[in-house]
Amino acid sequence: MHVELKTEGGVAFFPGLARPFVLEVTALSAEDAERLACLVEECGFFDREEAAPAARRGADAREYVLTIEVEGTRRRTLRLRDPVAPDLELLLDFVRTKERESRPRR
Amino acid sequence: MNCILPPYIARSIAQNGSAAQRERALRLLSVDGTLRALRAAAPRRVPMVLAAPEAERRRTVYTAKNTQTLPGTVVRSEGEGPTGDPAVDEAYDGLGATWDLYWEAYARNSIDDEGLGLDATVHFGRAYDNAFWNGRQMVFGDGDDDLFRRFTIAIDIIGHELTHGVTEDEAGLRYFMQPGALNESVSDVFGSLVKQRTLDQTADQADWLIGAGLFTPKVSGTALRSMKAPGTAYDDPVLGKDPQPDHWSRYVRTLEDNGGVHINSGIPNKAFYFVAAGIGGYAWEKAGRIWYETLRDPEVRASSGFKTFARRTAANALRLYGPTSGEEQVVREAWGQVGIDL
Known about the structure:
The complex is a heterodimer.
Chain A: E1 2-9, H1 15-18, E2 21-24, H2 30-42, E3 62-70, E4 74-81, H3 86-101
Antiparallel strand pairs in A: 1-2, 1-3, 3-4
Chain B: H1 7-16, H2 19-31, H3 35-40, H4 46-51, E1 59-63, E2 73-77, H5 86-106, E3 118-124, E4 131-133, E5 138-141, H6 155-169, H7 177-198, E6 209-210, E7 225-226, E8 235-236, E9 240-241, H8 256-260, H9 266-279, H10 287-295, H11 306-321, H12 327-337
Parallel strand pairs in B: 1-3, 3-5
Antiparallel strand pairs in B: 1-2, 4-5, 6-7, 8-9
Helix pairs in contact in B: 1-2, 5-6, 5-7, 6-7, 7-9, 9-12, 10-11, 11-12
């Protein structure tokens, strides 16, 4: 499984955070890989409609372009906007946590 | 050309004065040919304004309890004392300081100028490193504690988000490309003015930073943006380098960030800084009023770009302060210094 997350919007634009984050499941521990698979399954990721962005009111909210691909079988891209639906929020939190963990240590 | 009472004072009296004072103020407004008088005469506002009691703050702070459910559970309502939760109390105080700036400096009664209650939700999401205006309320995350602390910590961010509501109600600047960068800049301007007024700072005492205190000590940077020196707020291995230009010649053409709304706002931000520094004293008094009147100016529309906005700031400076007082010249020179010649 291959996961790609691009985060857009927010109260400021940070070039370093605007780059897509790529997560290969092969790089995860067995426990994390299983957790990710469960989250993808539980939210019905591949059966969801690719959500259109909400009506353009407001400012500084985040949008997330989340793509998940299972080798050679399924691929889907969802466009999410804050506030994110609770079942998708768990999946998004997981990916964002992995993105934070991948940052250079200081 | 100039009426006896400045229009904003006449309007304040029309809202709050005795019956006789109101009648006189409304008479003045009725013969005043300014844009504000024309707006004040608009049927949408006047009956509601006259019927309204004394303007008052109506704040409600909610907690999302680290979910993304809005608005969440009420934790502090208007008039209630501190809760001891810094995010709740900072949001409450920041909403108050923003309401005060708009009411006391510009006689604006809340976001919609009709007394709308101010709602904010804190503890939004898990490790949520952002703040936003959703069209109805403000929303603040706790930060991820890696790069960002809680977003209520910076009072100018509270003023920034609330001002998005004001802009939506007034000029309605479209959130894309130049109008979007103006929308962002207006939020930075009034966010900074909320902070400066809270700290009782004159233009030369202010730091002109947006979001100072938000970064954790791990970040190489001082703030999200600098109005005085766009492009210098941070340079960090994870965040990258502050991409804001400080001059029209360095305008960034991009489709990211809604066409660079948080990037190119550096240009009008610096123009405002030049105006405030050039006029001197408290920036919310004259520079802020010129910008506020421009935000309400019917000639500034949803699609307006930098040049239109700049021209109207000069026109409003002239209308408010007259041809000999110097403010208009300061405004023209400020825009010229960022490459926008009027």
